[in-house]
Amino acid sequence: MTDEKNSDERRQSPRVEFTTEIVLNTPSQSYRLEGSSGDISRKGIYIYTKEDIPVETVCEVKVVLSGSQPPVVIDVKGRVARKTGDGIGVEFSEMDLDSFSHLKKIIEYNSTEAS
């Protein structure tokens, strides 16, 4: 039961499945990752990638929403918080108000949790 409580505390921000194009910029390289996002929340994003990006790497993530012309881009700063065999988890540290507003709408629209 303790594990469930800790898990709930870590996941206070709902995560939703969301697949789109991601542009990931690190101090040393830029990656364009088509259809690579797995899930997203107000606090972070999981990105499917085989690229070797170390944990603690500071990065900028651009979530490209291609449903409009021109595409809307959610632009956030963060760091690689975890790495698995098929991707990385990026924890957000900073975003502008427009990006936060778009992110909030994505989560609300795609969430299966009751509001």
Describe this structure in words.
The protein is of the alpha+beta class. The chain has a single domain (2-110), classed as Thrombin, subunit H. Helix content is 20%, strand content 43%. The protein is built from two helices and eight strands. An eight-stranded antiparallel beta sheet has the order 1-4-5-8-7-6-2-3. A hairpin with a 6-residue loop joins strand 6 (58-65) and strand 7. It is globular and about 30 Å long. 19% of the residues are buried.
Give a nutshell description of this structure.
The chain is α+β, with helices and mostly antiparallel strands. It has helices at residues 2-10, 97-110, and strands at residues 16-17, 21-25, 30-33, 37-40, 44-48, 58-65, 72-84, 87-95. The longest helix has 14 residues, at 97-110.
